[in-house]
Amino acid sequence: MKKTALIYSYNTKKSKKIAEKIKDAFNDDAVETVNAEELTEEQFLSYDQFVMGVSTWFDGELPNYWDEFVPAIEDMDLKGKKFALFGLGDQKGYPENFQDGIGIMAEILEKQGGEVIGFTSAEGYTFEKSRGLRDDKFTGLAIDFENQSSKTDARIATWVKQLKSDLS
User: Fold this and answer.
1) What residues in the chain have per-residue pLDDT under 70?
2) For residues 28 and 163, is the Cβ–Cβ distance under 8 A?
3) Tens digit of pLDDT for each residue in 26-37?
4) To 5 degrees, how large is the angle CA 6–CA 36–CA 143?
5) Which of 144, 130, 116 shows the shortest CA–CA distance to 51?
6) Which is nearest to 60 in space by CA: 16, 22, 93?
7) Are the C-beta atoms of residues 89 and 143 closer than 8 Å to each other?
8) Measured between alpha carbons, how far is 87 from 15 in angstroms, rounded to an integer?
9) Rounded CA gap, 148 and 46, in Å?
10) φ, ψ dihedrals at 155, nearest 5°
11) Is pTM beyond 0.90 here?
């Protein structure tokens, strides 16, 4: 597998825990962890494949560290680069914008020519709407730590197996 960046905030407890489980599931030294809060444009562009943690904050917003990096992404040519997104959200507490973060980021990456992979089924979730939803699939792995933590490990294992075949 090509060198792949696993980008997430090292300072967010739940995202970090999920990212570590994803890293373990890959069981591949080609997957390198990168702190989203210290990410540089040069570092970002040095990878061709990405697994990115993009949770939904507040009422459907990107986390601050991604929001601050988006202007740099909007100036990049991402053709030939693959992106798999995972996000944490609360479908009961925020049913009107569950997993908006992965949808927002997918739109930004695709606008710049990036290919978003790793879509997952929305079956088994209950929410009102989501920018992360396309044709009954999420634009990445949807994790609800608060309400469905017992399903997290199986969802990660299934998703990483899917990604291993999608990432070269």
Assistant:
1) none
2) no
3) 998 899 999 999
4) 60
5) 116
6) 93
7) yes
8) 8
9) 35
10) -65, -40
11) yes
- Token reading at 34: 């990168």
The predicted structure's pLDDT at residue 116: 98
Strands (E), 2-136: 4-8, 31-35, 49-53, 82-88, 115-117, 120-121, 133-134
Phi then psi for residue 78, to 5 deg, are: -105, 15
Q: Where are the domains of the chain?
A: 4-166
Quick one: CATH architecture of 4-166?
A: 3-Layer(aba) Sandwich (3.40)
Q: Encode pLDDT of 51-65 as tens digits.
A: 999 999 988 999 999
**Pick from 59, 19, 23: nearest CA to 143:** 19
- Block residue for tokens 């407890």: 13
- The reported pLDDT for the residue numbered 14 is 94
* DSSP element (H, E) containing 137: strand 137-138
- Cβ atoms of 31 and 19 closer than 8 Å: no
User: pLDDT for 84-103, tens place per residue?
Assistant: 999 999 999 999 999 999 99
Phi and psi for 31 in degrees, rounded to 5? -90, 115
Q: 115 - beta bridge partners?
A: 82
The number of residues making up the chain comes to 168
Nearest to 84 by CA among 12, 164, 153: 164
Residue 79, SS3?
Answer: coil
